């Protein structure tokens, strides 16, 4: 079965094409700057040469058409006909309480995704554009939606409810949902394989840290708690997002600075985090470089970032009454050895015996960065959300 995996953003569209017989990636690519006259299509067939094309791509319909065209291109394509695509899997950020697992796209499913636009106004609408575009250009091809929030639907009420009037939950479903669920799901399963133990026996803390970042307490294969909440703003300090703060800061800032709600929302989501404290960048690589060159603001940003991450790991170990392993994944987690070092060296009370040499290694494979015999293991596990989406799509379409 040939499956096309799509991840639609407000002005972008990422894709991967899989042959599910071997789970081989046939091609990867992305369309950027959708809606502009200098949109960029980047396409890389496996074993082939990367292709870059600049043209006007006004909307997601045209972006999907361009993707299909390049996949079937005589010179750069990997298929002879679009009829070879058996199914399409979509990443959708917010499934609310309606979707506890991946599901086949139907009219009812589309209506519910639209109803959830208010909970993810920047993410769910583009995903729906991608679904609609596929219906137009690949009529009759089954589609599956895989939700970032679905994996975290196992949280108990004491984890997902906020201590605010219950009427707000009953009327508006204001609660913790969590995000990056596809990644947390994937790396927890991979970690169990590396550890050589059943996932159902393990207590794991998974740390998906990129420009956006979240932790999850995975107890026996299910989410007990996770750091992101109603929106992806809560939790860890991130590239441009504040993470946890006193909610009274919002009305206080509005009053003192005469800001609107939209301006404060923009400040917390786009002008906070590493960028705000360092004053130079939201990119951890640039933060580390500036810190090494003696920049005190970069050092403070780094220390705040790693301190807050350690707090969450410790809190989740307490919540699970123990811990077997910590997993680092995503851009920062997989690539920033200074971040992993700063976090792990001050978690010795958990039984972590950190190995500096292993931490410095670079690999695309899952690996230990603790010493042999460490009571609590620390792993670096490269995430692969697209593969999990492809697997879910394959299983659902095969059984439908």
From TrEMBL:
Q: Could you tell me what the cofactor note in this record states?
A: Mg(2+). Can also accept Mn(2+).
- List the residue(s) that the UniProt entry marks as the site Transition state stabilizer: 180, 241
- What are the entry keywords? ATP-binding, Cytoplasm, Kinase, Magnesium, Metal-binding, Nucleotide-binding, Transferase
Give me the residues that bind ATP, please: 14, 208-212, 283-285, 331-335
EC number(s) reported in the record: 2.7.2.1
Principal place of residence = cytoplasm
Q: Where is the active site?
A: 148
Reply yes or no: does the keyword ATP-binding apply.
Answer: yes
Q: In which pathway does it act?
A: Metabolic intermediate biosynthesis; acetyl-CoA biosynthesis; acetyl-CoA from acetate: step 1/2
Q: Which reaction does it catalyse?
A: acetate + ATP = acetyl phosphate + ADP
Q: Where in the cell is it found?
A: Cytoplasm
Of the GO CC terms on this record, one is:
cytoplasm
CDD domains per record: ASKHA_NBD_AcK_PK
State one molecular function term (GO): acetate kinase activity
Residues at which substrate binds: 91
A single BP term in Gene Ontology: acetate metabolic process
Main enzyme class: transferase
* InterPro entries linked: Ac/propionate_kinase, Aliphatic_acid_kin_short-chain, Aliphatic_acid_kinase_CS, ATPase_NBD
One Pfam assignment: Acetate_kinase
Residues where Mg(2+) binds: 7, 385
Record keyword Kinase present: yes
- Needed cofactors: Mg(2+); Mn(2+)
Provide the family line: Belongs to the acetokinase family.
PANTHER family under this entry?
ACETATE KINASE, ACETATE KINASE-RELATED
The protein, known as: Acetate kinase
Protein's organism: Paenibacillus albus
Q: What is the lineage of its organism?
A: Bacteria, Bacillati, Bacillota, Bacilli, Bacillales
């Amino acid at each position: 079965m040939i499956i096309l995996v799509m991840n639609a953003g407000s002005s972008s569209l990422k894709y991967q094409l899989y042959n599910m017989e071997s789970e081989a990636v046939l091609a990867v690519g992305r369309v950027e700057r959708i809606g502009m006259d200098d949109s960029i299509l980047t396409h890389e067939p496996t074993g082939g040469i990367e292709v870059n094309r600049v043209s006007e791509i006004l909307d997601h319909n045209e972006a999907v058409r361009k993707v299909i065209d390049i996949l079937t291109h005589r010179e750069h394509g990997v298929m002879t006909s679009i009829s070879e695509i058996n199914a399409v899997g979509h990443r959708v950020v917010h499934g609310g309480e309606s979707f506890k697992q991946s599901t086949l796209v139907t009219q009812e499913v589309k209506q519910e995704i639209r109803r959830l636009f208010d909970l993810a106004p920047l993410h769910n609408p583009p995903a729906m554009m991608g679904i609609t575009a596929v219906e137009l250009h690949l009529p009759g091809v089954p589609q599956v939606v895989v939700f970032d929030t679905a994996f975290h639907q196992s949280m108990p009420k004491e984890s997902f409810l906020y201590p605010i009037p219950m009427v707000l939950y009953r009327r508006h479903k204001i609660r913790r949902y969590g995000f990056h669920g596809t990644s947390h799901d994937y790396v927890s399963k991979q970690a169990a394989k590396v550890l050589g133990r059943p996932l159902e026996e393990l207590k794991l803390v998974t740390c998906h840290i990129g420009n956006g970042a979240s932790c999850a307490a995975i107890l026996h294969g299910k989410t007990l708690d996770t750091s992101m909440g109603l929106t992806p703003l809560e939790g860890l300090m991130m590239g441009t997002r504040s993470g946890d703060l006193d909610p009274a800061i919002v009305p206080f800032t509005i009053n003192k600075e005469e800001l609107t709600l939209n301006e404060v929302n923009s400040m917390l989501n786009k002008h906070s985090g590493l960028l705000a404290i360092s004053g130079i960048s939201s990119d951890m690589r640039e933060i580390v470089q500036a810190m090494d060159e003696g920049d005190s603001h970069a050092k403070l940003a780094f220390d705040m970032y790693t301190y807050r991450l350690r707090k969450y790991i410790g809190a989740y170990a307490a919540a699970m009454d123990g811990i077997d392993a910590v997993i680092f994944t995503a851009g920062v987690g997989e690539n920033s050895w200074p971040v992993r070092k700063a976090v792990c060296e001050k978690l010795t009370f958990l039984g972590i015996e950190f190995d500096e040499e292993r931490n410095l290694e670079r690999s695309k494979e899952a690996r230990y960065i603790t010493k042999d015999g460490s009571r609590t293991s620390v792993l670096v596990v490269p995430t692969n959300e697209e593969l999990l989406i492809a697997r879910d799509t394959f299983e659902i379409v095969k059984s439908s």
